[in-house]
Amino acid sequence: MLRHGSRSLFNRASATSMRRRRQFSTDLPAETVEDTKFVESWKKMNPNMDPPKTPSAYMKPRPPTPANIPSKLTVNLVLPYDSVLSSKEVDMVIVPATTGQMGVLPGHVATISELKPGILSVHEGNDVTKYFLSSGFAFVHANSVADIIAIEATPVDRLDPNLVQKGLADFQQKLNTASTDVEKAEAQIGIDVHSALNAALTG
Amino acid sequence: MSSSAAQPFWRAAGMTYVTYSNLCASLVRQCLKEPYRSEALSREKVHFNVSKWVDGKPEKPTIRTDTPE
Q1: How far is B40 from chain A (nearest CA, A)?
Q2: CATH level 2 (architecture), domain B9-66
């Protein structure tokens, strides 16, 4: 009787706390996966004590692909200091991946992509909201939840065109006068970011 | 499998992703319009002090700060 007490307490506690949270991509029925080989050898050695939980018992498996494609994509856009979008249901997002602009629709295959500085556009019905991201990652999970993380994400109307042009010219200058690898890399990064900002303002 | 994958130019130059990402973010912050720019730059301020320990005792700390005392 006492042996099973801790297991059901754990399940009940995690299930209620999961219901109160916002929907995360890893929300699943509260199943704890047991490491069967370890549990069996423990029971052989020590049949009277409950086996301790191994780290794999606390890990939540990846969200499974649902049988029907959901109609909306749930997007979370988070920054270190703010969550700009949190569990917003949208029709599509276009993320600026390093391999090009990637459109994510509900039912998209699970993907992890690194982002380059560029525009994230969130499409909801006829509204399109654009944010300029400074670089980050986009995780699309099999249950149509997209987590986009970046350090800075600003609406395009908060960018100042003059500062962008000036920055672009400055960094092009720095690239010409750069000597060490690190200086060249920094100048190149400056040029990339400012050209992306420029394209965002004019495009 | 050491240098098999093509590396981004900044990693080839010895920069880590964290440095790259923070640099991109700081460049974007510097291109913002006025009220947003000052709020954003306040996010970049750091204040910390570092002290090396020698023989179990801390030496004089070096203070790195952007907030005026």
Answers
A1: 9
A2: Orthogonal Bundle (1.10)
